Amino acid sequence: MHIAVIVPTLNEAENIESLILCINDALKEDYTIVVVDDNSKDGTQGIVVGLSEKYPVKLVARPSKLGLASAVLDGIHACQADAYIVMDADFSHPPALLAVIRKRLETCDLVVASRHMEGGGIKGWPLKRRIISRAAIMLGRPLTPIKDVTSGFFGIRSSCLDNVNLTPRGFKIGLECFVKANWKRYAEIPLLFVDRQRGSSKLRKGDFLDYLKQISLLYVYVMVRGRKK
C-alpha cells in the first residue's frame, strides 16, 4: 500500500526538515510526502526542495494563503496513492503514529487519531480553547460516529474519495471526509495532542465562524442524502 502523507505548511521552516526526517523514520518505504505550501516567506519551500533530492518529497507551491482544507485537497490531487494521511507540520501530530495508521488502513477504510478516547488527550491548551474545541465537537457529533470529529490527523483510502465532492471551509477537512466519503469500516486510535513548540499558530478569529458555516452545510447535505435513500 502506497501512502501519501499530506502536510499543509505556512512558514514552517523551524519544523519541516525535522518532520520529514521523522516521517521517513516512521514509514521507511512506499510513501510520498506532499508538502502543500501557501507561499511561505521563511524559506520553507527551499528546505523542502532540498530534501526532495534525498527523500520522496513533493512540493506543491501555492501563490498565497488559501487555507488548510483546500491545501489538503490540492495535495490529494497532486499525488496518486492507495491511501492518504493528513497531518500538521508543527509536531502536534506525532509522526510515530503514522506507522500505526498505515497498518490499520490495511483493514479499515478510515483511521482517525482521536484526542477524545482512552489514551488520548490534549496538552498545552488554555481553558478557552478547550471549551471552543468541545463545543465544536458537540455540534458535529450527530453527523458521524467518529468521536473526535475535529481531528486533523487521519488516514483514508483513496477509493473512499471517488466521486465525492468535498467542499470544506477553513481548517476542518477531516469532518468533511468523515461525513461525505464512502467509507464503511473505521477505527480511532489514541492521540496525545501537544500544542506546537516552535513557530506560530495559524488559527484566526474567523475559523470558528467558518466551522459553523461548514457544519450548517453538512447538516443540509445529510438531510438531503437521507431523503434520496
Main attributes of the structure:
alpha/beta; single chain; two-stranded parallel sheet; 36% helix
What is shown here, in short?
The protein is α/β, with parallel strands linked by helices. The chain is 36% helix and 19% strand.
Task: Give the SSE order as H and E letters.
Answer: EHEHEHEHEEHEHEEH
Give the number of DSSP strands: 9
Domain count: the total is 1
Largest sheet: 7 strands, mixed
CATH architecture: Alpha-Beta Complex
- Amount of helix: 25-40%
Question: Briefly, what CATH class?
Answer: Alpha Beta
For this structure, the quaternary state is single chain
* Overall pLDDT score: 91
User: Helix- and strand-based class?
Assistant: alpha/beta
Question: Would you give the CATH topology?
Answer: Spore Coat Polysaccharide Biosynthesis Protein SpsA, Chain A
Spatial strand arrangement across the major sheet: 3-2-1-4-7-5-8
Based on CA atoms alone, the radius of gyration comes out at: 17 Å
Report, as a whole number of angstroms, the end-to-end distance. 33 Å
Blueprint of the fold:
Blueprint: E1 3-9, H1 16-27, E2 31-37, H2 44-51, E3 57-61, H3 68-78, E4 83-86, H4 97-104, E5 110-114, E6 121-123, H5 127-140, E7 154-157, H6 173-180, E8 186-190, E9 192-194, H7 207-228
Parallel strand pairs: 1-2, 1-4, 2-3, 5-8, 6-9
Antiparallel strand pairs: 4-7, 5-7
Helix pairs in contact: 5-7
Describe this structure in words.
The protein is built from seven helices and nine strands; from the N terminus they run E-H-E-H-E-H-E-H-E-E-H-E-H-E-E-H. With 229 residues, the protein is α/β, with parallel strands linked by helices. It has one domain (3-228): Spore Coat Polysaccharide Biosynthesis Protein SpsA, Chain A (Alpha-Beta Complex), CATH 3.90.550. Strands 3-2-1-4-7-5-8 form a seven-stranded mixed beta sheet, sandwiched between helices. Strand 1, helix 1 (16-27) and strand 2 form a beta-alpha-beta unit. The longest helix is centred in the last third of the chain and has 22 residues, at 207-228. The mean pLDDT is 91.
